[in-house]
Amino acid sequence: MESQVRGGTRWKRFAVVMVPSVAATACIGVALAQGALAASFSVSGQSFKVTTDELVGTGFSQYGALDEGYTLSGQKTVHPVAVSAFKSATIKSLCQSVVTPNIPVLGNVSLILRAGQGAEPVEAKNLYIDVADLNADATFTNIDIGVAAKDASKGPGMKGGGEQANPYGFAQQAEKAVLKDVKQTAWATTAGTFKLSGLKMSLSTGVKECY
């Protein structure tokens, strides 16, 4: 069966904080590119944008949850999300961007990560994406709609940990999901392993996003 279907800090102080953070991010990025680390992306209560030409996932499930985070001013926030989970996935032409606004002296600063642009796609195992908005062309194989989240056995299971989700809430699942021309806004991404082939990262002033 198939279905078709985004204070008052001085510049010197900012540099002291920012430079080690960028260096650490670069080291983590290299390790991820070599498939050496589990991955978790959650940008302090900020959403981030993701695009990809094609995501092919096996063992797919999706259910509702709440993400907790903090604004840049330290206020606690809660966001409703649809958690898309895959036992395994390959991703072609991945772009991920986040904009940090109103940094003293610099203004807006954008971080863009790209991977899987060449022959080797990005590879992920036990991938969870907390999605706020999604646009794509999607094909699901052997899909079940309306199962309880805890009973979605085709996917990797519910994320667990500090996740706020109703195990008896609405969910859907499929043996395979193919998403093309993906544009999405997400609040968090986690994976058991995340191999970023051909990783490229850039940090620049102004607003520069994947879409």
What are the SSEs and their pairings?
Blueprint: E1 2-4, H1 11-33, E2 39-42, E3 48-70, E4 76-92, E5 94-103, E6 107-115, E7 122-148, E8 170-191, E9 193-195, E10 200-205
Antiparallel strand pairs: 1-7, 2-8, 3-4, 3-5, 3-8, 4-7, 5-6, 6-10, 7-8, 7-9
Low-confidence blocks of residues: 2-28
Number of helices: 1
Counting DSSP E segments of at least 2 residues, the number of strands comes to 10
Gap between N and C termini, in Å? 33 Å
User: What's the domain count?
Assistant: 1
Rounded to the nearest angstrom, the radius of gyration is: 18 Å
Query: Helices and strands: which structural class?
Result: mainly beta
Q: Biggest sheet, open or closed, and with what strands and sense?
A: 10 strands, antiparallel
Order of helices and strands: EHEEEEEEEEE
Mean pLDDT: 83
Morphology: globular
The proportion of residues in beta strands is: over 45%
Q: What fraction, in percent, of the residue positions are helical?
A: 10-25%
